[in-house]
Automatic annotation (TrEMBL):
This is Uncharacterized protein. GO terms for molecular function: beta-lactamase activity. Transmembrane segments: none annotated. It comes from Prauserella muralis. GO terms for biological process: beta-lactam antibiotic catabolic process; response to antibiotic. Residues 30-64 are annotated as: Disordered. It comes from the Bacteria.
Length: 308
């Protein structure tokens, strides 16, 4: 780790405006990388003709199995932290259906998950051009290391709540709303289903180079965020060894603890997962992280079985 100086340059109306200099402990470099491995093996050629049977197409889970899976997740979370409010949505891109859901259209506080919208807005304002130099480093820091001051500067420079409204319209988000206090981006509210829609936009609508940059940053999420918080809970903790690109969220509010785990999971980014929680205010961070991880762990067997 080294101490570097990050110069935040913002793209506003096509011009570059330097607005912030921050010092942050970061890895020596953040390079763009392919977000997830395809897991493809080399083709083997044989001189003997072989009859090939087409692989059966996967089918969506029956309704009762989807309900049972949602119950397993909610019970796993509340067993460790009773009284937790839970929102869940898991999309299987291969079948084009929800694998399971609970309170999928109920808005929850995003905490840092809203940084996905901030990054998308900044890139769109720049004509989907991926920035270079310090500005690129700062966007990466916001996504991978959850740098709050980068988010705050971009939020202010790009119109604050206007970001939420414009991205909701662009991405078709039905249950997303700006914060009641305009400066507090972390109090944006989104539903689990809307979180899935954001990742779907990245996968299907955002220009490839911009999407690759965002997903590459999420794939490179450091275990410790720049504020020292252990952000490897939920998806990365419960699904070790599984390809993933994540955006986590955490914060304390007056009467509760917000802990969210979201991302794309599996070979070929097959699954999109959003588990949003509002836990009782007396909950410790370690206890809360363990509860969210237990919730994702309840999905692990099904995700592995469906992928096989």
């Amino acid at each position: 780790m080294r101490l570097g100086r990050i110069v935040l340059s913002l793209l506003v109306a096509g011009s570059v405006v330097a607005v912030l200099v921050v010092a942050a402990a970061r890895s020596p470099s953040h390079t763009e990388r392919s977000p997830l491995s395809t897991g493809l093996e080399p083709t083997l050629h044989s001189t003997t003709p072989t009859a090939v049977s087409p692989s059966p197409s996967p089918s969506p889970l029956p309704r009762h199995e989807r309900a049972e899976l949602a119950t397993a997740v909610t019970e796993a979370v509340t067993r460790l932290v009773p009284g937790t409010e839970i929102g869940l949505a898991v999309h299987d891109r291969l079948t084009g259906s929800l694998l399971t859901s609970h309170n999928a259209d109920r808005p929850f506080y995003t905490a840092s998950v809203v940084k996905l919208l901030i990054a998308a807005h900044v890139l769109r304002e720049a004509g989907w051009r991926v920035p270079e130099g310090p500005e690129r480093d700062n966007l990466t820091a916001m996504l991978a290391d959850s740098a709050d001051w980068v988010a705050s500067a971009l939020w202010e420079a790009h119109g604050g709540p206007r970001i939420d409204r414009q991205m909701a319209e662009l991405m078709g988000l039905s249950h997303t709303a700006p914060p009641a206090v305009a400066s507090q981006w972390e109090l944006t509210t989104m539903s689990p289903r809307d979180v899935l829609a954001v990742y779907d936009y990245l996968d299907t609508e955002m220009p490839e180079r911009a999407a690759g940059f965002v997903l590459g940053a999420l794939n490179g999420a450091q275990r410790l965020a720049l504020d020292g918080f252990d952000q490897h809970f939920g998806i990365p903790a419960a699904l070790p060894g599984t390809d993933h690109a994540i955006k986590q969220g955490w914060m304390r509010i007056d009467d509760g603890l917000v802990l969210n785990t979201t991302g794309v999971v599996g070979s070929g980014s097959r699954y999109v997962v959003a588990l949003l929680t509002r836990q009782p205010g007396s909950t410790g961070y370690a206890e809360g992280r363990a509860a969210v991880t237990a919730g994702i762990a309840a999905l692990a067997e099904t995700l592995a079985a469906e992928a096989s």
